[in-house]
UniProtKB/TrEMBL annotation:
Pfam families: PPR, PPR_2. It comes from Symbiodinium pilosum. InterPro entries: PPR_rpt, TPR-like_helical_dom_sf. Keywords: Repeat. NCBIfam families: PPR (TIGR00756). The lineage of its organism: Eukaryota, Sar, Alveolata, Dinophyceae, Suessiales. This is Pentacotripeptide-repeat region of PRORP domain-containing protein. PPR repeats lie at residues 44-78, 79-114, 115-149.
Amino acid sequence: MRKSTFRPQLLNYNELISAAANMHDVNSAVAWFDHLEKENLQPNVISFNAVLSAAAKKGALDISVALYHRMEAASVQPDSYTFNTLISAGARAGSGISAAGEWLQIMKSACIKPNEATYNALMDVAAKHQESLAAERWFGELVAEGWRPSAVSWKTLVAASVNCGDLPSAEKSLKAMAANNFQPDAALCFKEL
């Protein structure tokens, strides 16, 4: 019987890490990431982002932050996805809007421009922490930066107002949403009620 000479490449490991992340299996994602390094392969931004995604989906902020520091130590340049994922990890972990704001500042200091997904993640943190003013501020920044708010942006803004019990602001946002040709879905309208 012939012995296989196949040696997994970085792409193969990235696919395995991503598959684990899609299953919300942070332990397997980290294990594949560690195995990649043991095979003397250099992880790239895709490798780091995939394992960060797994950690974020579980709200494992400690793992996410440790991975970010490993990324820095490996001189791998983060991208907007990296920071969006770190902000989302913070939202799931309950770290609050100040931590999300810190990640935004780190992102900007790394000369990475926040995008619509960044602002949606920031607004999600605000909505989860009942900070409608922060959500409104980040929605305003999204527009000021030239991004067109998506249905997700509008829904997150409305959710922040509803979570705070600020129904007049929620109604105002729903009207603005409709004026911008976005129709709220039944779940959003039910939440407002």
